[in-house]
């Protein structure tokens, strides 16, 4: 069976491709809400949870995993690192399916390698900041609650909401929406909160990176982008046909 690391729009498309070709797969996602993205069939099973190095061996045995297709989010570095290490240790074929980046840097856009690098500057001081980088990064901004007016957009889940509130965000400065978000809604939200600076991830078009660039330019709002983690993937493609061919060949061995 193929292990498809999911949780993204492109992984859902790949899962449907695999089902159409009769390729058995188990998809891993971290939230129950993500389950609905995938086909409900015998040859496509969905495992919900967070795999750890201690649990991955049992997972591989339970589902008789013979190859790995990693279509996780570009910023889900931990699961990719776990999958790569597992593939190397057990000699399993591994392919990273990477969503295409949005090329170049927009005029007036700042790019930082990490949240820590951004917070080492004074760029956010006295700004009305919208954070669109996920709830896991929000605790890093807790010391900044008195230095800037911080808002956050998070996924609509109990875990995300609890994490944001624990990081010092009040309900009136939070909005829970699942991407993709159309440009008119993005623009209306920024205007409603009188945002002056947006912090986003370099997560490609599926994550709305191109739309954020467009809206920032239209409204004259500063845009800060966090670069993707630099991982040494053994094999990478953004081509669905290549990914499907990899799956067929790997499982035929």
From TrEMBL:
Pathway: Cofactor biosynthesis; adenosylcobalamin biosynthesis. Pfam families: CbiJ. GO terms for molecular function: precorrin-6A reductase activity. Its EC number is 1.3.1.106. Keywords: Cobalamin biosynthesis, Oxidoreductase. One of its GO terms (biological process) is cobalamin biosynthetic process. This is Cobalt-precorrin-6A reductase. The lineage of its organism: Bacteria, Bacillati, Cyanobacteriota, Cyanophyceae, Oculatellales.
């Amino acid at each position: 069976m193929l292990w498809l690391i999911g949780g993204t729009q492109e992984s859902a498309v790949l899962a449907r491709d695999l089902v159409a070709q009769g390729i058995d797969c188990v998809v891993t996602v971290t939230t129950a809400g993500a389950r609905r993205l995938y086909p409900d069939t015998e040859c496509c099973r969905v495992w919900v949870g967070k795999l750890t190095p201690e649990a991955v061996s049992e997972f591989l045995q339970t589902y008789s995993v013979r190859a790995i297709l990693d279509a996780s989010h570009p910023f889900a570095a931990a699961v990719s690192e776990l999958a790569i290490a597992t593939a190397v240790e057990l000699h399993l074929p591994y392919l990273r399916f990477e969503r295409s980046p949005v090329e170049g840097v927009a005029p007036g856009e700042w790019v930082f390698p990490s949240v820590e690098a951004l917070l080492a500057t004074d760029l956010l001081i006295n700004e009305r900041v919208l954070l669109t980088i996920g709830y896991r990064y929000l605790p890093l901004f807790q010391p900044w609650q008195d230095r800037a007016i911080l808002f956050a957009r998070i996924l609509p889940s109990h875990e995300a909401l609890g994490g944001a509130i624990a990081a010092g965000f009040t309900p009136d400065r939070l909005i829970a929406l699942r991407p993709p978000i159309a440009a008119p809604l993005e623009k209306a939200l920024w205007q409603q909160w009188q945002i002056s600076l947006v912090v986003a991830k370099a997560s490609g078009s599926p994550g709305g990176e191109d739309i954020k660039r467009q809206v920032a330019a239209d409204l004259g709002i500063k845009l800060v982008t966090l670069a993707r983690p630099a991982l040494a993937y053994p094999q990478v493609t953004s081509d669905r046909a290549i990914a499907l061919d990899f799956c067929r060949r790997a499982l035929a061995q």
